[in-house]
Design a protein that fits this description.
The protein is an all-beta fold. It is 2% helix and 55% strand.
Length: 392
């Protein structure tokens, strides 16, 4: 396969430059000549150095038409969420997206606020609705976490892993989590599964979900797998950020709402032809909903210096046919390959950004993001769309 980057910037109706969440919404099957679908971007933030050195948070929502390659004017109605940075994810089989939780800083008082509410946005009606949870004791505490959705036997679910909350903004003390929560989208109910095995350390990261074929004798079944790579956590000892590049998977039971244990596995072994794994970083990940996970760019801080990347990796997980818990990884660094087939001006800059998997001709999408130029202290923000395109 041959693929390269294509950049779209300076477009009409484009969002303000920022760091924000992005997801792909498949096309409306009832509309003729609509085969590409759209990208959906919500809220986010940028650092305002011209006034009081605070983060400015937003709650606008934008749609990028993948057929016309244009931003669509979007005037939402309904119960619009408060300004925040929050994970955004698609409800499988629908034209709606969800946001959960997130955080924001008040631009006047500079106080931080965290959320644990959830909102649904329909890209056709342009309407927001707040999700009303069923009363139960498993609702996660307010946090900024990583969330993904998946479908199992025509039922839609979402998974929340880990996250962070700022406890003291003067000492930069954070609480981090490594809990796992399941949300039944149809029933509007949270459940905290019983987990066993090699549970990842507490962190904020962006997980991915894949569904792989597992052979059991003469039977092949689909196994839903949560994938956690890397992330960030502030150390209580050094008060510096710890970054990770470890790799974990969690095997989701066939019936996610049952009382069956969920098994965490740390994946340490590679196949012989695996490339070197990505370095420690906080970065976006996404999956093709089958067996591949993509990792792009990201950031880390070393000796007080911000380091950003525009590397692109593909991760394949290989499951032992006789023992599903015996897993090996194969990393493929496809940075050079993607750059060789791209016009120089189209190659995305090093940045912390958001990413979504599309498939077909357009494989991956990046939106905006931020980076710190060398020998400076301020952030540069982007508002471009960069597509990794299949160039057959």
């Amino acid at each position: 396969m041959s693929f390269g980057w294509e950049k779209f910037k300076g477009l009409q109706n484009a969002p303000l430059p920022r760091v924000a969440s992005l997801c792909y919404v498949p096309p409306n099957q009832e509309v003729e000549n609509n085969e590409e679908g759209c990208l959906c971007m919500f809220g986010g933030d940028y650092f305002d150095t011209e006034t009081n050195n605070s983060c400015i948070y937003l709650n606008d929502i934008h749609l990028f038409d993948l057929k016309t390659k244009q931003w669509l004017a979007c005037n939402p109605k309904g119960n619009i969420p408060e300004r925040r940075f929050a994970p955004l994810f698609h409800i499988p089989g629908s034209r709606s997206v969800l946001i959960f939780g997130g955080h924001a800083q008040d631009k006047d008082t500079l106080q931080w606020k965290y959320y644990n509410n959830m909102f649904e946005f329909n890209v056709d009606t342009k309407e927001w609705n707040e999700i009303k949870y069923k009363n139960n004791s498993d609702i996660p505490s307010a946090r900024l976490g990583g969330m993904v959705s998946f479908q199992n036997e025509n039922n839609n679910y979402a998974l929340l892993f880990g996250g962070e909350t700022l406890v003291d903004q003067f000492t930069y003390k954070y609480n981090y989590y490594n809990e796992l929560y399941l949300f039944d989208i149809e029933q509007k109910q949270w459940k905290k599964p019983k987990v066993v095995g090699d549970i990842p350390s507490k962190r904020w990261c962006q997980p991915s979900i894949i569904q792989v074929d597992i052979r059991e004798g003469d039977v092949i079944r689909k196994q839903t797998v949560l994938v956690v790579f890397g992330g960030i956590a502030m150390s209580d000892v050094t008060m510096q950020a710890d970054y990770f590049n470890d790799l974990f998977v969690c095997l989701v039971p066939n019936n996610p709402v049952s009382d069956e244990e969920w098994v965490w596995i740390k994946v340490n072994s590679s196949v012989e032809n695996s490339d070197k794994p990505p370095s420690k970083r906080f970065c976006p990940t996404c999956s093709d909903n089958n067996s591949k996970v993509y990792v792009y760019g990201g950031h880390c801080v070393k000796e007080g210096i911000w380091l950003f990347s525009n590397e692109l990796f593909e991760l394949n997980l290989i499951f032992d046919e006789e023992n599903v818990k015996n897993i090996k990884f194969k990393w493929t660094n496809i940075t050079k390959k993607s750059h060789e087939n791209s016009v120089k001006e189209n190659i995305p800059e090093q940045r912390w950004t958001s990413m979504a998997y599309i498939g077909k001709e357009d494989i991956l999408a990046l939106f905006g993001g931020a980076m710190v130029p060398k020998d400076t202290y301020g952030f540069d923000y982007f508002n471009d769309i960069v597509l990794l395109k299949n160039k057959k």
